[in-house]
Amino acid sequence: MIDYEGKMKKAVEVLVSDFGTIRAGRANPHILDKIKVDYYGVPSNLQSVANIAIPDARTITITPYESKMVKDIEKAINVSDLGIAPNNDGKSVILRIPELTEDRRKELSKEVKKRGEEAKVKVRNIRRDANDEIKKQGKAGEISEDEQKDIEAKIQKVTDKFIVDIDAKVDAKVKELMTV
Questions:
Q1: pLDDT in tens, 112-153
Q2: Which residues are bridge partners to 86 per DSSP?
Q3: How far apart are CA 138 and CA 134, in angstroms?
Q4: Residue 131 · residue 154 · CB < 8 Å
């Protein structure tokens, strides 16, 4: 039971992590989490080759530990699907986060809802696997029919809790995106 609950919790954590990479019109260093930079032939996380700072609500500055990395960082941001044009001052890369248009906000909200549905499907699949395992134990005589029903009810209760949690997180992110 705890194993399945842990898997469900992990599915929600992955969703929250995904939400961090969705740009909401404010500077957030997590939008850079998926960007890889070529560091001496090895694709590396941007955070491992540069210092990332948020000087104000609409600006991200990326100062590489080695000044020659500025061009590589700029290139990595350009080829990413971030949708922000980087500027550089020779020592660091500066990202100015533009205001989101109404259409873009709606588009991002749809993406958030889609990811929320995917997370719910993962949780339901975990529930199905748990119930299948309980049914196998019931058929093998390892647990009684009453125990099987009790465990299935507990699994459903845990599933419902995580579905409600996912809905709350989706609603919060959509509200954040739609706030001008």
A1: 999 999 999 999 999 999 999 999 988 888 888 899 999 999
A2: 95
A3: 6
A4: no
